Amino acid sequence: MKYIHDFTIVSNERQTTDFVVLTLQAGEAPLPEIHPGQFAEVRIDGAPGVYLRRPLSIHDVDYDKQQIKLLVQEVGKGTKILTQQAVGSMVNMVYPLGKGYDLPDSKRVLLVGGGCGVAPLLFLGRHLKKNGISPRFLIGTRTSANLVRLEAYNELGEVMVTTEDGSAGTKGYVINHPVMRTEEPDFDWIYTCGPEPMMKILAKYADHHDLTCQVSLENHMACGIGACLCCIAPTKDGNKCTCTDGPVFDSKYLQW
Amino acid sequence: MVDLSVKLGSLELKNPVMTASGTFGYGEEYEDFIDIHSLGGIVVKGTTLHPRQGNDYPRMAETPMGMLNAVGLQNVGVDQFIQSIYPRIKHYKTNILVNVSGSTVEEYVETAEKINELESIPGIELNISCPNVKEGGMAFGTSCPSAIAVTSAVRDVYKKHLMVKLSPNVTSIAEIAKGVEGAGADSVSLINTLLGMAIDAHSRRPVLSTITGGLSGAAVKPIALRMVWQVANAVKIPIVGMGGISSAEDAIEFMLAGATAVEIGTANFIDPRITIQIIDGIRSYLESHQMNSVQNLIGGLITE
Ligand SMILES: Cc1cc2nc3c(=O)[nH]c(=O)nc-3n(C[C@H](O)[C@H](O)[C@H](O)COP(=O)(O)OP(=O)(O)OC[C@H]3O[C@@H](n4cnc5c(N)ncnc54)[C@H](O)[C@@H]3O)c2cc1C
Ligand SMILES: Cc1cc2nc3c(=O)[nH]c(=O)nc-3n(C[C@H](O)[C@H](O)[C@H](O)COP(=O)(O)O)c2cc1C
Ligand code: FES
């Protein structure tokens, strides 16, 4: 079941020059069950030129406190206004949307995130841990200043890092990290979200080593609920909506 | 109690608010947010004789107060619609209209014939105005002779309410409206999207895979309103107005310009409950203006 609810911003914490974590308090209606990888269509009022809602992943959920966290990267007119919203202001969301990540059929998993693609992996890691699976994270960024909330990921499991400029962790892209360079990978499932080139490389890697790879696409959306057919991705069964059949897809199902 | 009901020829609507094709799926997508039965009608996704995969991604570009789309009539085809979708939605206690499109007159006719057999579909909206398919689509709606030809051919086989959806990408929409009225249309709906374009200055490339696409949303409202007004002065059949309607006031403006009913499109993306809010808003408007029927609004523009 999907809902449209108003949330109150209870904290707005800047992480880096362009990443902000918003903590949103649910109103009277209790939070529905949310699956990792699902997203919300967030209404951003008062941003010139912003007409449509913006899709943002559920970064974390605290059912006890009835709170949702969003990790927002400022990339354009909408996200720049959203991250300036003061504590106490309201945010309207249509949520939870889409099909999230599946539980693995193996305990050996690697969660790979790049850019704002790290957002859904925190909630996924928490969910995996609750299900007796220790998540391991591999996070890739351009430079160390863009690494966000490492402590939160660290609480859930091992965190490995690559930076393009070598300012932290292994220098290069995620695919250059030693964990990806062994003859036999020590994981059977890859969960990933981030720039498409990164996910395509991981999908190829998974094919080569016969692993399962679940990718989360960031296609542009208008409605977020399967009504407009704007967000399609080509799959083995033809065009599918990223907002309802995804955003998480098995990489082998996509025709990339 | 104010009376919200209106009539489109033989079609009785419990209120003048319908949904626009391509923006409301098959209605099911909105079931979590609103009571579909409360709507005056729903117009489901553009349906063609054969299944269509539509255009390549990207199909959408946001523009100031609007959006461009280039979906290209992706749909399962009329047979699959009848087999798997129709049985799921036919219980809706509202008027379900199927938006019918095609590349040739024969395709329109064959699709309309099949839909004619469906008991719970009281009408079709003939889409002769889609700007997003290369062959046919808008081509039928931009010349008077072809608009007349496709309308009369469908009229011959389709026995229920025949609404013809007009393209704004023409020199005189009133001429085309008169043409399809003469060819047997029971009503006209307008406007479909306006042909537009978006360019990414940084990559120096078009945003849409098709380069051009159809503009909708609040940005098109003044044009749509003007066209409804022009068509209202040209035809006697009822008019269904649409184009950027986002509030009850917008809907009322279209009715004052001459529309008997309205369709809500892109605004559904911004608030999935908008149709119900518009119905409630029309009711409050009538109450506060002490009008007992929404029909009093139709063509009620004061110009002297
Ligand atoms: C399922 C999903 C989950 C996402 N999760 C997150 C997240 O957790 N955190 C995060 O920071 N970002 C996330 N994104 C990306 C985020 O939606 C875009 O960055 C945001 O919409 C940009 O809006 P803007 O107004 O700031 O940018 P604009 O000024 O509109 O444009 C800047 C750039 O943003 C991208 N963009 C614009 N509109 C959209 C749109 N409707 N959908 C997707 N991308 C768009 C384009 O690449 C564009 O070039 C997610 C996207 C999807 C589809
Ligand atoms: C994503 C999208 C898909 C559409 N698909 C169709 C369609 O299949 N058939 C049709 O006749 N019109 C289609 N339209 C046009 C709308 O029905 C409507 O005529 C137009 O969007 C103007 O109304 P609006 O501004 O309220 O959206 C589509 C519009 C959008 C935005
Ligand atoms: S965004 Fe409208 S169908 Fe996916």
Automatic annotation (TrEMBL), chain A:
It holds the Pfam family NAD_binding_1. Belongs to the PyrK family. This is Dihydroorotate dehydrogenase electron transfer subunit. GO terms for biological process: pyrimidine nucleotide biosynthetic process. It comes from the Bacteria. CDD domains: DHOD_e_trans (cd06218). GO terms for molecular function: 2 iron, 2 sulfur cluster binding; flavin adenine dinucleotide binding; metal ion binding; oxidoreductase activity.
TrEMBL record, chain B:
GO terms for cellular component: cytoplasm. Pathway: Pyrimidine metabolism; UMP biosynthesis via de novo pathway. Substrate binds at K45, N69, A70, V71, G72, L73, N127, N192, T193. It catalyses: (S)-dihydroorotate + A = orotate + AH2. Belongs to the dihydroorotate dehydrogenase family. Type 1 subfamily. GO terms for biological process: 'de novo' pyrimidine nucleobase biosynthetic process; 'de novo' UMP biosynthetic process. Its main location: cytoplasm. It is an enzyme of class 1 (oxidoreductase). Transmembrane segments: none annotated. InterPro entries: Aldolase_TIM, DHO_dehydrogenase, DHOD_1B, Dihydroorotate_DH_1, Dihydroorotate_DH_1_2, Dihydroorotate_DH_cat, Dihydroorotate_DH_CS, Dihydroorotate_DH_I. This is Dihydroorotate dehydrogenase. Residues 4-286 form the Dihydroorotate dehydrogenase catalytic domain. The lineage of its organism: Bacteria, Pseudomonadati, Bacteroidota, Bacteroidia, Marinilabiliales. The active site is at C130. Its EC number is 1.3.-.-. FMN binds at S21, K45, G46, N99, N127, K165, I191, G217, G243, G244, G265, T266. Catalyzes the conversion of dihydroorotate to orotate. Keywords: Cytoplasm, Flavoprotein, FMN, Oxidoreductase, Pyrimidine biosynthesis. PROSITE patterns: DHODEHASE_1, DHODEHASE_2. It comes from the Bacteria. It is found in: Cytoplasm. Binds 1 FMN per subunit. GO terms for molecular function: dihydroorotate dehydrogenase activity. Its cofactor is FMN.
